[in-house]
Amino acid sequence: MSNSDFEPIACQECGQLHRYRPVASGKTALCSRCGGVLYRNRPQMLNEVLALTLAGLMLFVLTNLFPLLGLRAQGAEQELHLFGASVAFWEQGYHLVAGLVIFTIVFFPLFELLAVLTVLLTIRFGWQPQPAIFLFRWMREFKPWGMLEVFMLGVLVAVVKLGDLATLIVGTAFWSFAGVVITMAASTVLLDPFVVWRELGKGCLR
């Protein structure tokens, strides 16, 4: 048993300290005070998250290559790309809003996907853990700023509101964008930060 097995583990919900104890496959360790999740034993967790992350990256590329929505009215047709949403705000003089849009729906999600991929590959291949530790720490700090779900909700509202005024064409990027939201949400649910920190810590000891 390694020295890290004796290090105290703080509950993320109430701060109660516990000593690490291995649990059976598929089981979850809970806080003795509040019942919050401390860590899980999922043997295939890292592989599952890796698959979701790779799928998310491919869908993210498709989302930015193809139009998100098309609008046809009075014989004219206009397409909207994901990046084009921030450009439209910029051209109308809403520079701050344009910056927030590009960061929250493009930069932060892409950073999260690439950071998770780097962390998982570092654990799998035993690379130097310091870059992965840096990326994982900042990914968790930036995560609240990734607002893909909010943007997706806004797109759905626009589809409903504009449906009576013009003919809406749902582009390829709309479905790939929905896939990005789903894969990133599933990855967040599956990925256990305790396991990640523990595996990266083992790399520091090698």
Automatic annotation (TrEMBL):
Cited Pfam families: PqiA (PF04403)
Transmembrane regions listed in the UniProt entry: 49-73, 93-123, 144-162, 174-197
Superkingdom assignment: Bacteria
Keyword annotations from UniProtKB, A to Z: Membrane, Transmembrane, Transmembrane helix
Keyword Transmembrane: yes
The protein's name: Paraquat-inducible protein A
Species of origin: Thiothrix fructosivorans
